[in-house]
From TrEMBL:
Belongs to the NADH dehydrogenase family. Its cofactor is FAD. It comes from Planococcus massiliensis. This is NADH dehydrogenase-like protein YjlD. GO terms for biological process: aerobic electron transport chain. It comes from the Bacteria. Gene3D superfamilies: 3.50.50.100. Keywords: FAD, Flavoprotein, Oxidoreductase. The gene is yjlD. The keyword Electron transport does not apply. InterPro entries: FAD/NAD-bd_sf (IPR036188), FAD/NAD-binding_dom (IPR023753), NADH-Q_oxidoreductase (IPR051169).
Amino acid sequence: MRKLVLLGGGYGNMRILLRLLPNNLPLDTEIILIDRTPFHSMKTEFYALAAGTASDHEVRVAFPESDRLSLVHGEILEIDLEDKCVLMENGDRVQYDDLVIGLGCEDKYHSVPGADEFTYSIQTIGKSRETFKTLLGLPSGAVVGIVGAGLSGIELASELRESRRDLNIKLFDRSPRILRDFPERLSNFVKKWFDNHNVDVVSNSNITKVEPNLLYNHEETIPVDAVVWTAGIQPVKPVRDLGLESDSSGRVVINQYHQLPNDEHVYVVGDCAALPMAPSAQLAEEQAEQIVEVLKLTWRDKPLPESMPEIKLKGFLGSLGKKQGFAYLADRTVTGRIARLMKSGVLWMYKWHNG
């Protein structure tokens, strides 16, 4: 049997599974999915899990069931491209004929001393659970620092405010204004929400060091009871260890078919792939759609098209607690209750389409 091995059960590989199963997989091919958990985790909602406004059950869905799909649970230690196998932490080796690397990312600490030791994360469901335990266990009046005011930091800060109105929340932003690459109207709406809900946005910040219960912003020291890091990502270690050509963010360079340039049997999807757009669930799913088409042509010994369609993203949706939100869609800004309802609707549809 030909083996298609999918590394990681994130948005990209989940879409590949749903497109190939049950009827689009050749009879001589099986799929092996390797993931540390027995379910697909909706990473875009980890901020709510960490803040305590969503349960573990609400941020995951089951993988599809099929006699053509085998699930392998555990940690990946090494990807051996030469021998075409994946080495697991427990010593098992999983051989492949075609491989899709969709292992996602981990926090990037930018060489800030203490950041990896003394901050919490929302990059995995396990780390989000630990962050939840810490944040919800803090006493009234405690100070929480959130380093990084991108979409994850914004949503975590707003959700935590609704979960714990008794906490002092400080959101550290390197930029002069929140979401500086988007229309000022969007930035002003988000900043006004934070002002009205007593979230302190520290603009033009530069965290230079983290110690237990202490943040260094430029030359200033700020006492904190807990710090959550949302200030950058990088591909996970097994991908970085491959030593492949990468972009400035460490993402692996791929060709137009989402393959390694020198290995047509290895695809890279999601946060590990070097593309001109910022990593997102939407981007991973669009990549996955194209990878499926390439795989189907390859399996039938059909020629690949001279060029692949350009990936066009619809925009993004963000929440500010359970009642307000913001969106940037087709170069248009939407704010308030409507934007929040749109995000809730997209989440509901995603769960419905994934069973």
